[in-house]
Design a protein that fits this description.
It is a single chain. Helix content is 33%, strand content 22%. It contains 15 helices and 24 strands. Strands 9-8-7-10-6-11-12-13-14-15-16 form an eleven-stranded mixed sheet, with helices on both faces. The model has no long low-confidence stretch (mean pLDDT 96). The structure holds ligand UAG, adenosine-5'-triphosphate, 2,6-diaminopimelic acid and magnesium ion (MG). It is found in: Cytoplasm. Its EC number is 6.3.2.13. Pfam families: Mur_ligase (PF01225), Mur_ligase_C (PF02875), Mur_ligase_M (PF08245).
Amino acid sequence: MKLRELVERFFLYQTTKNIDSIFIKGIAIDSRKVGNGDLFFCITGFTVDGHDFAKQAEANGACAIVAEKPVDVTIPVIIVNNSSRALSIAANTFFHNPTNKLQLIGVTGTNGKTSVTYLLEEIFQQSKKKTGLIGTIQMKIGDTSYNVKNTTPEALYLQKSFRQMVEENVETVMMEVSSHALDLGRVYGCDFDIAIFTNLSQDHLDYHENMGDYLHAKSLLFSQLGNRYDLTSPKFAIVNKDDSNAEFIIKSTAQHVITYGIDSEADITATNIELNANGSSFTICTSDGNMDITSRLMGKFSVYNMLAATAAAICSGVSLRDIKSALELTTGVKGRFEPVATGQPYGVIVDYAHTPDSLENVLTTIRSFSNGNVYVVVGCGGDRDRSKRPLMAQVAVNYADLALFTSDNPRSEDPDQIINDMINGMDKTNYEVIVDRKEAINRSIRLAKENDIVLIAGKGHETYQIIGNEVHDFNDKKVAEDAIIQKIGKG
Ligand SMILES: CC(=O)N[C@H]1[C@@H](OP(=O)(O)OP(=O)(O)OC[C@H]2O[C@@H](n3ccc(=O)[nH]c3=O)[C@H](O)[C@@H]2O)O[C@H](CO)[C@@H](O)[C@@H]1O[C@H](C)C(=O)N[C@@H](C)C(=O)N[C@H](CCC(=O)O)C(=O)O
Ligand SMILES: Nc1ncnc2c1ncn2[C@@H]1O[C@H](COP(=O)(O)OP(=O)(O)OP(=O)(O)O)[C@@H](O)[C@H]1O
Ligand SMILES: N[C@H](CCC[C@H](N)C(=O)O)C(=O)O
Ligand SMILES: [Mg+2]
């Protein structure tokens, strides 16, 4: 592509040399991955400053540089106000605005994003659409999976993925949109057709200054949802009316708003809800008619997720019959309320709850059907929101008979200190501290008797434990299975 054509989209910029004869072969943001003829963007990161790598990018074959300040290279430099924003514009342009050719559904909120995107995938596949999915666990095109580093990837990888989806004839894409991505502009230029707000509760206060900033970041998905009414392709904001921030989100968009809820009046609601140890049954009420659902998904929070997915599917013209089939067929997502069943007489559940709210939801659900003791194995991530630590620990001791506090990706922090933060000020004593996660899981399985339930929370689908800079293999489900088998062996 002609560099001039791409750069003109920046609107305000300065060039240090004439760029008219330059054609770029690609875009790069990592100097170590620059190819011959690439345009390199210097991004100021949280760890290092990409401007310091301009020379390396040149040495690796970059034909020009985009930067926020002068850099010491001989190739042309395009100076912009904000390299990250310029990168989003460039990536959209270079990959020919792929989201204009896709139906794009963005899901944001503290909890439930992954769960809702997977429900949507099943619903759209049921209605015979080719789907794409981007989120915490993986990126998928149809049934092919790709690894991801972030829940919502950097603009360059995002637009490249969308392009691939267009080329592979994907029709509908569901993606998780994290507050980090919204704040850092990773999704600038994405043409969302539907935006879903699941809920807001405390998390990520390491990154956002306070809950107001966190909410504001979430609301950007809704203010970014088209800027005018388009009668031929309307846009929809789907909002959980039971969340106390619903009105703020609703006011952030100029597009159609569809609400869902259980306790408040909403466009799409659920009644006759029955929750039990095998799943849930309820009636979804919509203006198009009602449908009775019997699902294997557990807990009231899952009913919310199913309502959110139903609302988006209805806005997309999917029939109630296809929605019902998908909701009744789904068995849930890896690491989300996933049972570990190795023939033992007690329940073991692996779940990704890593916020006070999600832990409370999951423990309340377990409490509602358990008639034995409830054990929870839980830790808090290092280099993440410290203020959620005592809240999560308090939830654990409030709802479980015994909490086993342990490590969950301590990263650069001291694991003992993280647990100290958790138990600091605790007014209950029904907990034990076992820093080694494998030991903690083993202990919980040894304690469990018939009818008891063990919840192993926080890591869900993760297959690693990050200690310092090292990533160790660690899989909650596998460790639990081994512990159960060992216990059975010992009789
Ligand atoms: C805080 C944050 O968001 N960090 C992201 C950020 O990293 P960073 O700012 O530290 O980058 P950096 O290492 O300083 O590098 C700056 C620039 O220099 C470049 N560089 C660097 C070294 C070099 O030799 N040459 C070079 O060119 C880098 O490619 C980059 O362009 O840019 C990276 C590349 O895009 C991201 O992978 C990284 O996400 C890290 C892994 C992360 O943990 N992010 C979390 C906080 C996050 O974003 N989470 C949300 C969701 C959480 C949830 O709710 O589940 C997510 O969407 O994943
Ligand atoms: N609607 C919901 N409300 C509250 N808690 C939920 C909801 N849905 C799921 N959960 C709980 O939150 C955990 C994480 O769910 P999920 O992975 O769907 O959320 P997420 O928003 O994608 O999280 P992340 O920000 O880490 O990507 C689940 O394992 C479950 O414990
Ligand atoms: N994607 C989220 C989830 C982390 C889950 C938990 N296992 C942890 O490491 O804190 C984050 O990075 O904050
Ligand atoms: Mg997720």
